[in-house]
């Protein structure tokens, strides 16, 4: 009830109508660049209120109020403004950008074991220091947390790091005692208008926030336990996926920043959460949130990009989900080069619901259902098209759209549906089948097939087109076709795995193709992790489960955050870019059959689908060489992107100057992958440089090998790098020539090896 009231208050505030020159006031974010450490926050807020007063007409003083105030790592605020007022503020010298405050959306027992197994590294090969540190803090910006979950037990954990400055906020259903040495912080945010405003005596008055850090939907609880959940024995989901649940860095601390209201996440609140997390002392920030690809904006109007830049300035790595709009290209989001962008893969466990046809044939479907049917039963089969009501469009009944199915023709039967025309969600199809009295539902659709849908007690199974063809053939040639859908079971050591999840958003990046995105891939299909009891339907006769399955790049993101914390615990002085580099250059590009990783349809995956490959945290512990990307690199990137020097100086907080000539600085920043957005065949050569830092043995020599696509010639100079000490740097040139290549993207890699370490840089080259 409290959550619904909070959401209602936020909606009412967002819809507040204030007329100025016939314009409606709406929430805006005003971004003002880098903030000084240790600045006077109240003075800054007072200045922001004064700035608002200068553009808001007299008589509307109630709008001189800050919804959010940013003052730790960067400066700015959010407030209710008309379009005219926003335009006026954007002209102020101190203002970098002004943009509407929109809503973003929220994008285990087996996954970590699978990643460890694929590394082919035994625990005896790992340094002891990789397992002892509990000083790493992961900030989760999400929907809240369920503190009673066993995944957040703090048994055996030492004192909270002294540098921690965060708090455990109380709410109507959340006490300070809900935090402990594992869950060390929990904040929530007031989305109402007027959280900071002038008082009658001239000081600043802060209204009391209303809400709770508690998670109402389970998303933040799931991602938090995936990143850093404590080890929990005998975890399962009603008997499925039994094993030990744990996070990627079970010894790390968790701090939750609840920036989402149900599944909606205001831009202004996310920005405030990032600012707070940086100031509180987190090491890693995990954000499984993003916009849809067609609404992407440039970097200075993107709050995730803004916040992540300043986090990077302060040494904090930001990991973001890449989106769930696959398998289409140009859909990946959160693509700023200072963000670690994550795609989603499957693991070697699937949840299977077998279909037994009346002729004895058994088809391997995918679903999570706990029906009580057995293989000794059978029920008539009917195709949705043949059960249409009257003049209902055949396509609608085939799609099992609500209202299109004749109850008399379906009652007591198993209905077969397909996805045609306007898409209908799986949940909607199941509800339509249940309302029609169906005994079960078989869905024929390759998309999201392996992302098993949970149907509770209702018999449901999804198969691809090949199995669907067998079903239709049987129905067409059998007078009275029958079938039964069996309860689900989990299958371990499934092959091939991993594959790229069909829903995982693909590159190239729509904002810039000069950076190869996504960066990496991690498990994101059917991930078992902590959940909120009673969020999902409880099977008859069962108690609510402490664990649930979820899928999405939202689940892949905390895998990388956990892996990053694991590396940070072993290498506390590594910068964010060094951690990213180690994960990317040691990523795995083959599956558990020893063959190239494929997409969901079986074709070899490209680097625009899987980034550098699937993370291998154990291999990343000792990468040999790393690519250090500096803040200056990112500023050069912004120069080449076309931002004005004054804006770049405000962002950086320095007197930085762009170079007089910029030979494609975007592709040439010291990134662990390479993307050439446009390589013309008529141009003889195109070059880019990279610099590596030796973090391996002091005396070593690396030799380069190139794997290039047909028609593209790649030359590395020099092709041998010799290091005489640790932390020594070496620079090399990569030249691309596409004189005989066909148009479009080609993919390849450059691998440096000293016999003990393998450092791979993947590249994508667009020939035009």
UniProtKB/TrEMBL annotation:
Keywords: Glycoprotein, Hydrolase, Protease, Serine protease, Signal. Coiled coil: none annotated. The active site is at residues 142, 219, 554. InterPro entries: PA_dom_sf, PA_domain, Peptidase_S8/S53_dom, Peptidase_S8/S53_dom_sf, Peptidase_S8_Ser-AS, Peptidase_S8_subtilisin-rel, Peptidases_S8_3, S8pro/Inhibitor_I9. Residues 392-470 form the PA domain. This is CO(2)-response secreted protease-like isoform X2. Pfam families: fn3_6, Inhibitor_I9, PA, Peptidase_S8. The keyword Protease applies. It comes from Canna indica (Indian-shot). GO terms for molecular function: serine-type endopeptidase activity. Transmembrane segments: none annotated. Residues 28-107 form the Inhibitor I9 domain. Residues 204-226 are annotated as: Disordered. The keyword Glycoprotein applies. Residues 1-21 form the signal peptide. Residues 134-613 form the Peptidase S8/S53 domain. Residues 669-765 form the Subtilisin-like protease fibronectin type-III domain. The lineage of its organism: Eukaryota, Viridiplantae, Streptophyta, Embryophyta, Tracheophyta. GO terms for biological process: proteolysis. Belongs to the peptidase S8 family.
